[in-house]
Prior knowledge:
alpha/beta
Amino acid sequence: xxxxxxxxxxxxxxxxxxxxxxxxxxxCTGRTADSKKWVSERYRPQADRWLALNMISSINxxxxxxxxxxxxxxxxxxxxxxxxxxxxxxxxxxxxxxxxAEGYVMPKTAVLAVVxxxxxxxxxxxxxxxxxxxxVVLYPxxxxxxxxxxxxxxxxxxxAMPGNDPGPAEIVETLAANGYPSVVCEGGPxxxxxxxxxxxxxxxxxxxxxxxxxPARPLIGGDDEFQRWFTLDGxxxxxxxNTYHRLRPDTQDRTAA
Length: 257
């Protein structure tokens, strides 16, 4: 153990994190309050109003493991980083499909904001012992009758968005106007694709697990041709080979000659 290692903060049992970009070679090992602070400093939002897209994938870009959920791509270090990202957010934003498929539970500090067209959250695992204000349901005002009927007596804060087909800009505006300016969007693929296409993303946090998964399930949804470049702001790697990318939208035109 080097002197630098002796002073390093700690992360998770048997798994260390090393900073590759920027090239500091700074490292933390194990799990203490100092390690969480070390990670928190690297994932801190750069503005009060902030939309971060948080994703995990296999090497070949699958958003889920063989069980059809992202859980089998994750590890303890990834979940610790996810907790830090959520701690910085006012709201964790997900699509209704992700709530049903991934078995979402309530975040520890941020509210859970769910986007739905129908109001159907059938099969959710949110429980019933949470403060109703901590579950926020966003829906198109044009579908209000159907949404409210499907939600029934589910404890939640209901926020109608204008029109029949609100997009990412309306989602962001509605959340900010109701006290949630800092948001982390966790998908699924369709919602993530909408935010990327709309240019509503301030940062992308991408964890990559060192595994191939077939058949691959898309990380980003959509069939139309589209490309948007991002710049690598930071890169961490853990001792198991998982990588943790922090990216921001590239302001340069890379298609220019």
